[in-house]
Write a structure and sequence with these properties.
This protein is α/β, with parallel strands linked by helices. The chain has helices spanning 12-24, 45-59, 75-82, 97-105, 111-124; strands at residues 3-9, 31-36, 65-69, 89-93. Helix 4 (97-105) runs antiparallel to helix 5 (111-124).
Length: 132
C-alpha cells in the first residue's frame, strides 16, 4: 500500500482527513498530516521539513508515499517537493475531499497511477451547479 501524507497550511489537511474518515467509516493507518503555519518564518522551515521527512520514513512501506498539498507553489508544496527527488515520493497539489477519498480508496495501486487517480478525483469533484 502507498502511504499518504497530507501537507497543508494550518490544519486544513487534518480537517479534510477527519471528514474522509467519517465518510469512509474507518481509521486510516497509512495516512498522516503535517500542518504548516500560515505565518511561518524562514528560520522555522527546518522544523516542518523534519516532520515531513520523518512522516515519509514512517509511511513508506516499500510502495512509496503520495504527498498531497493544498496549493501548488506555497510553502507546504515547496517543502514536499524538496523530498520528491531523493525518495520514492510523488507530490500533487490542490487537495479537496473528492481527491482524498479517491486516493484512500485506491491506495493499493502503484504510486504513479495513484497520483493520476488523485488528480482525476480532484478534478471530477469540481463542478458547476446548474441554474435552477
Amino acid at each position: 500500500m502507498v502511504g499518504i501524507l497530507i501537507v497543508t497550511h494550518n490544519h486544513i489537511g487534518e480537517e479534510i482527513l477527519k471528514t474522509a474518515q467519517t465518510i469512509l467509516a474507518k481509521k486510516l493507518p497509512l495516512v498522516k498530516t503535517v500542518s504548516v503555519p500560515g505565518d511561518l518564518s524562514p528560520d522555522e522551515l527546518g522544523i516542518y521539513a523534519d516532520q515531513i521527512k520523518m512522516s515519509i520514513d514512517i509511511l513508506n512501506k516499500g510502495q512509496g508515499v503520495l504527498i498531497v498539498t493544498d496549493m501548488f507553489g506555497a510553502t507546504p508544496s515547496n517543502l514536499a517537493h524538496y523530498f520528491s527527488e531523493n525518495h520514492k515520493v510523488k507530490v500533487i497539489s490542490g487537495l479537496n475531499l473528492s481527491m482524498l477519498i479517491r486516493i484512500i480508496h485506491y491506495s493499493d495501486q502503484p504510486l504513479e497511477l495513484l497520483a493520476q487517480i488523485g488528480i482525476v478525483g480532484g478534478n471530477k469533484g469540481i463542478t458547476k451547479e446548474t441554474d435552477l
